[in-house]
Specification:
alpha/beta, 18 helices
Length: 437
């Protein structure tokens, strides 16, 4: 099995730092598909060359996947709806025969197939994922999927490496597709589709709802696990809270401190480069937004125990978490995927059942649990449009066409997960079962 290639290798020269780049509003739709990008084999060895899959595996992939694509009207005679266009069918089926879904994603990244509606194609596939392979053959999935690399385990050092491989790519890369709040999690809109909200306003609505869930106000001692670029800490400080916020990303920490100081809240917010397992002190409220996905199933007990230790009696914990079905989570936990290989090493989306069981084992009670996955689909659509509109800026930061197609696929794949309801996003309130006086 080939060693996973860190995503920062898609950059042709260093581009780190907190400098601002203007958002170029060159259009709202996706950029034209780039076919067969020139692939640097040193940076992207598994993208550069289709694998030497055996003839039998390739034939099975061609038969099963080809029939499924035709049955779902994604290929074959012209029809209404999203279309998957094969430029190199042989390489496409060889990759799938060798690596399953990793091969499917690498084939797109290599330009061997395209679509004028990538999210639409992936949504159809996600909605029918259980039908793509006949039931008897699903029991043999271990024969063509790879196990997750042990190097991606979220030990203390492993967590730092995994976080840096994604969040320390470049602050300017994220600024190219996020809104001015630099919020990298689902927004909450007043209505869908998002005709009446700016993305920034919808992100503030999401943040304010979490702060309300945690009862954050004047004098609240708030712990945030997962700083991002500091927007939640800023809004909590504006309410009069005293905030300790933790991150493992040096890039995020530097820009968050800069933004917090510029807003005049430097005396109220302490940004720490610290692992959640090393939390100190007790807090009236704890908030963690889409950070549990980076913890890994092996460490979910430690995560919830850390939350419980950090909570003062009668305190409240507000979590925002992406979720998937429990059976799907168990399969994903045992499988190396395109996303774990190229985008979020060590990451795993939990199920609601897993969250409930681990939080209860830590002595926490679920007092509220609300989902709004369709809002995440809309958030991702807007990010994807901004990423396409700012392609020139992304190229200027040193991110090559292979990286850009990889992130096109990642954003569309994620959007499809929510549009098909394969994924959801939840806001939860956890308590210790006591009441604050």
């Amino acid at each position: 099995m080939t060693r996973p290639v860190p995503t920062f290798q898609g950059r042709t020269e260093p581009a780190r730092g907190a400098a601002r780049i203007p958002v170029q509003k060159t259009g709202s739709g996706p950029a034209p598909a780039v076919r067969r990008p020139e692939v640097d084999a040193d940076r992207w060895p598994d993208v550069a060359r289709p694998p030497s899959a055996g003839a039998a595996r390739t034939a099975v992939a061609r038969h099963l996947v080809g029939r499924a694509l035709e049955r779902l009207a994604l290929t074959g005679p012209p029809a209404r709806g999203p279309r998957l266009v094969l430029h190199d069918a042989d390489a496409f089926y060889r990759r799938i025969g060798d690596g399953g879904l990793i091969g499917f994603g690498e084939s797109y990244t290599a330009g061997e197939w395209d679509s004028d509606d990538l999210a639409g194609v992936l949504t159809v596939l996600a909605a029918h994922v259980d039908e793509l392979v006949p039931a008897p053959l699903r029991r043999l999935r271990a024969l063509w999927v790879s196990a997750r690399p042990t190097a991606d385990r979220n030990t203390r050092s492993g967590s730092r490496d995994n976080i840096q491989r994604h969040y320390d790519l470049s602050n300017d890369l994220f600024a190219a597709f996020l809104d001015p709040t630099l919020s990298y999690s689902s927004a909450l809109f007043t209505a869908l589709p998002a005709r009446f909200d700016t993305l920034a306003a919808a992100q503030h609505r999401k943040i304010d709802r979490l702060l309300d869930l945690a009862d954050v106000g004047e004098g609240t001692r708030l712990l945030e696990i997962g700083t991002g670029w500091g927007e939640l800490a800023l809004r909590a400080a504006a309410r009069g809270a005293r905030v300790t916020t933790l991150t493992l990303s040096a890039e995020q920490a530097a820009l968050a401190r800069e933004r917090i100081a510029a807003a005049g809240h430097g005396d109220r917010v302490d940004v720490q480069l610290r692992d959640y397992r090393d939390i100190e002190g007790r807090h009236d409220a704890v908030v963690s937004v889409e950070m549990i996905e980076a913890v890994g199933a092996e460490y979910w007990p430690a995560y919830f125990q850390a939350l419980r230790r950090a909570l003062a009696p009668g305190g409240r914990i507000a979590l925002q978490a992406i979720t998937m079905g429990h059976r799907q989570m168990l399969h994903t936990a045992a499988t190396h995927t395109f996303i774990s290989k190229y985008v979020f090493p060590g990451g795993l989306i939990p199920s609601r059942r897993a969250i409930a069981e681990h939080s209860a084992a830590a002595g926490l009670r679920t007092a509220a649990d609300d989902g709004y996955g369709e809002h995440y689909a809309e958030t991702l659509r807007l990010w994807r449009e901004r990423f396409a509109a700012n392609r020139t800026a992304v190229t200027g930061l040193g991110f090559d066409p292979v990286f850009q197609r990889m992130w096109d696929f990642y954003l569309a794949y994620s959007e499809a997960g929510f549009r098909s309801r394969y994924l959801d996003v939840r806001q939860l309130l956890l308590t210790d079962g006591t009441h604050r006086r």
